[in-house]
Structure formats: structure tokens, C-alpha cells
Amino acid sequence: QVQLVESGGDSVHTGESLRLSCLIFGEIFSVNDMGWYRQVPGKEREVVAVMSTDYDRKRTTYGDSVEDRFTISRDTEKQALYLQMDMLKPEDTGVYYCRYKTWMKDIWGQGTQVTVTS
After folding, report:
1. From residue 82, how far is each of 3, 42, 47 by CA, in Å?
2. Nearest to residue 53, comparing CAs of 26, 77, 73?
3. What is the dihedral of CA 84, 90, 94, 96, to 10 degrees?
4. Of 28, 40, 48, 75, which is most buried with the most CB atoms under 10 A?
């Protein structure tokens, strides 16, 4: 069974940076989607960034509000997924979740809180 553990959430000010990490425990299928999502109270969980892997091919997509500020990356050897967040804004505040999805599994981490104040 795959398990995801996020870390790196913190309270920062506008314009600062954070790097979130997601450690992935268990066997990873070669065709998968791994990504970051965020949720604020009263709103639906939204896509932040997703990396789709099909063996050696990778494709990344970003939410409109974070493109050009956030970067998703993956370390295959460490089985880790990262989200580099630059130029943070108060509207980036939320709980950030890591997700691992294949054709037969859909697994979420417990979330890590990011708070951005002006």
C-alpha cells in the first residue's frame, strides 16, 4: 500500500518562498499522476500542480493562479515529490495535499498547512 507524507508547510509573508516535500512509501507504478492540491475552508480542493508520468515521459500542468510562480519536481531515487513555491501571496494560503493516482489507486497525504500573510 502506498503512503504519502507531506512536510514543509509554514507561515510566511507575501513574496517569500517555501518548498513542500512529499515522501512516497511503497511501490510506485510506472504510469501515474502525482501532484499537489490545496484546499481552504468552504471551498473545493483545487489543483496546484500535477506531474503525469508514463514510464520515461513526463508532463506537468499547473493551476492558472500558480503558473510561473510554483514548480513541481520529482526525485525518483528518493521517491519524493516537491513543490517549490515562490512569490507567495495571501491567496496561496491553504492546506496542501500530495496525491498519487493510477488506474487502480487514488491516495492522498494528510496535508500540510501553508499560511501567507501580507
Report:
1. 15, 26, 15
2. 73
3. -10
4. 48
Contacts of residue 4, Cβ cutoff 8 Å, sequence gap at least 6:
22, 23, 24, 25, 98, 99, 100, 107, 108, 109, 110
Query: Quick check: 20 pLDDT over 90?
Result: yes
How many angstroms separate the CA atoms of 64 and 111, rounded? Answer: 21
Characterize 76-85 residue by residue with b for buried, 16 or more Cβ atoms within 10 angstroms of its Cβ, and e for exposed. Answer: eeeeebbbeb
Q: What is the pLDDT of residue 98?
A: 98
Mean pLDDT, residues 35-56: 94
Spatial distance between the Cα atoms of 10 and 65, rounded to a whole number of angstroms? 20
The identity of residue 32, as a single letter, is N
Separation CA 105–CA 99 (nearest Å)? 10
Q: Is a pLDDT exceeding 90 seen at residue 82? A: yes
